[in-house]
């Protein structure tokens, strides 16, 4: 199985580090976020990894080469000409994945110990197109699910904005936080193209566009370790949780 680690972002909430460096190379207890995610995937036998690059791309590529991929075979998906967000970044990296084979995506700035084997088993049991980790943690933006863990919408609790993929009453919707570790069937590429997705777009947009007609589900792994290293102050939290 292959994976992609999204590492291209500008890291605007992570200044001043990202004024001169990519967020993916920010250090947590002596290891970069990128290294930690590569080693996380290795625990589940995933050693073929795509890394997309944009912001200070040369630094990311140099770190990978200097450290020989930290023991994994790393391919680079180059977004230096245009930053494509998670959805566009995945579609651009299509050539690195094998038709008919499922694959994993994760974000460089998320650290977790979610069990990918359990995620895949849940995915296969439910015959899903897409399955992603979710938890009950507090955040500003939530994915919404029905009682069977099927995606039905998205909500921003700060603004009150809500996007619905299926018609359910508010009482039937269960909100959970997105963990950014996802298993996809290869058919996602055909479906994104058929829906007209191109250029820069988010995977959340893809999920919401497909959820009514395809099995897109959340795997609740509340209780596992997880830190969103989105801001510089998150480093201290991450270092207290991930030695």
Short characterization:
With 243 residues, the protein is an alpha/beta fold. It contains 7 helices and 14 strands. The longest helix has 10 residues.
Write structural notes for this entry.
With 243 residues, this protein is an alpha/beta fold. It has one domain (2-241): Spore Coat Polysaccharide Biosynthesis Protein SpsA, Chain A (Alpha-Beta Complex), CATH 3.90.550. It is built from 7 helices and 14 strands. The strands form 3 sheets. Strands 1, 4, 5, 6, 8, 9, 10, 11, 12 and 13 form a 10-stranded mixed β-sheet that branches. Strands 2-3 form a two-stranded antiparallel ribbon. A two-stranded antiparallel sheet has the order 7-14. A hairpin with a 5-residue loop joins strand 10 and strand 11 (162-164).
